[in-house]
Amino acid sequence: MKLTDQELGEIRVMHDIIKREQWKLDLVKVNTAFVPNGQKWTKQQKAILNLLTNEKENFISQCCRAKGVKGKISIDLGTGEITEKKDE
């Protein structure tokens, strides 16, 4: 089973945004003394990252439900292939 090109594109964009925001958070976290209100910013950024991640996961769940896929899955971000994970 595969995602549509549009679905895959949207997931890739969300994935890239989350990676970029995580990189900024990691950079500021170790350099809070150089950033005005750095500790406050890192707390806010963590909350924003959680929201972004939840939104991505909800979108993926919505796409999979529409295709009749339930349970744990993995998605190949290169091909859009959806693989159902078997319970171990």
Going by helix content, strand content and strand pairing, the class is: mainly alpha
- How is the main sheet built? 2 strands, antiparallel
Order of helices and strands: HHEE
Q: What integer is the average pLDDT? A: 92
Strand content: 5-15%
The 3D shape can be described as elongated
What's the helix count? 2
How many strand units?
A: 2
Descriptive overview:
By secondary structure, the protein is mostly helical. It is 61% helix and 7% strand. The protein has two helices and two strands, in the order ααββ. It has a two-stranded antiparallel ribbon with strand order 1-2. Helix 1 (5-29) packs antiparallel against helix 2.
Secondary-structure blueprint of this entry?
Blueprint lengths: L4 H25 L8 H29 L6 E3 L6 E3 L4
Antiparallel strand pairs: 1-2
Looking at this protein, list some descriptive labels.
2 helices, mainly alpha, 2 strands, two-stranded antiparallel sheet, 88 residues, elongated, 61% helix
